[in-house]
Design brief:
The protein is an alpha/beta fold. It is built from five helices and seven strands; from the N terminus they run βαβαβαβββαβα. Strands 3-2-1-6-4-7-5 form a seven-stranded parallel β-sheet.
Length: 158
């Protein structure tokens, strides 16, 4: 179900306890076209075999390096020394365009209904996406797409 991974992928997209199959499917499609690795941290609010997930991801899963993790601790144990994990939150202290992304960085997003827990977002550098029009937050798949493409632009110079 996963593609072969390059030695150092462009980046890693990490979804902490995602709730919506459609959002995860769309994030997987973004990872596929960028050559990014997708990490899903349990528990999920859906099953990876749900019809909604399959419909959203279409045939893009063949191009996605997917890793499932039992919880945050299990995920953190897989991080290489010096790994940079950027937490995306409406409580961010820096715009995503100011991050200075590097190849292999991890972009972390929280669940749709509540975002990242305080204990996690306070332990990591926090980035935010501008929301000049207001509103509570962007859709998870939209936010991950914006962030991942900006990281790719910074890394590859598109």
């Amino acid at each position: 179900m996963t593609a072969a991974e390059p030695a150092t992928p462009l980046l890693h997209v990490v979804l902490f306890e995602p709730e919506k199959a459609g959002n995860v499917g769309n994030v997987a499609r973004t990872c596929s076209v960028l050559g990014a690795t997708l990490h899903l941290i349990r528990p999920f609010g859906f099953h990876l075999h749900d019809r909604e997930f399959r419909r959203a991801v279409m045939d893009y899963m063949e191009g996605v390096a997917l890793h499932e993790h039992a919880n945050w601790t299990a995920f953190a144990a897989t991080l290489p020394p010096g790994a940079r994990v950027w937490a995306f939150s409406t409580h961010g202290t820096q715009l995503h365009t100011q991050a200075g992304f590097r190849r292999g960085d991890y972009l972390l997003f929280g669940p749709e209904s509540r975002g990242l827990p305080v204990w996690l977002r306070d332990a990591l550098p926090r980035l935010k996406l501008p929301q000049p029009g207001g509103g509570r937050s962007l859709n998870l798949a939209v936010a991950a797409g914006i962030a991942a493409f900006e990281a790719g632009r910074q890394i590859e110079g598109w």
